[in-house]
From TrEMBL:
<keyword id="KW-0238">DNA-binding</keyword>
<dbReference type="InterPro" id="IPR036894">
    <property type="entry name" value="YbaB-like_sf"/>
</dbReference>
<dbReference type="GO" id="GO:0003677">
    <property type="term" value="F:DNA binding"/>
</dbReference>
<dbReference type="InterPro" id="IPR004401">
    <property type="entry name" value="YbaB/EbfC"/>
</dbReference>
<protein>
    <submittedName>
        <fullName>YbaB/EbfC family DNA-binding protein</fullName>
    </submittedName>
</protein>
<dbReference type="Pfam" id="PF02575">
    <property type="entry name" value="YbaB_DNA_bd"/>
</dbReference>
Length: 103
């Protein structure tokens, strides 16, 4: 956290220090949100998906055994894993954001 140099006015110095602390808190939340990843699995763990808070696909793992599911079942398993990953990252994002709003 960058602390502004003293101005000589105690009240202004206090307000500037509070603003610097808040800014540091927001930067930390932003960093944590950028690093967050939601994970979801389906088909007994044969399909695993990882997404970012923006909903971008970060990783997809399909176990070779999942190929026996058939195209329709595999597609459904991927969509289900993605949905679970989105729920996971949404929950994480709310928890991270709550650190800013909770005292």
């Amino acid at each position: 956290m960058i602390i502004p140099p003293p101005t000589g006015d105690p009240e202004l110095d206090r307000v500037l220090a509070e603003m610097a602390a808040q800014t540091a808190g927001f930067e930390e939340v932003s960093r944590r949100l950028q690093e967050a990843r939601g994970r979801g699995e389906s088909a007994g763990g044969q399909v695993a998906v990882e997404v970012t808070p923006a909903g971008s696909l970060a990783a997809l793992h399909i176990d070779p055994r999942a190929m026996r599911l058939g195209s329709r079942a595999l597609s459904e398993a991927i969509v289900e894993a993605y949905r679970l990953a989105e729920e996971d990252v949404t929950g994480q994002s709310f928890d991270i954001a709550r650190t800013v709003t909770d005292p």
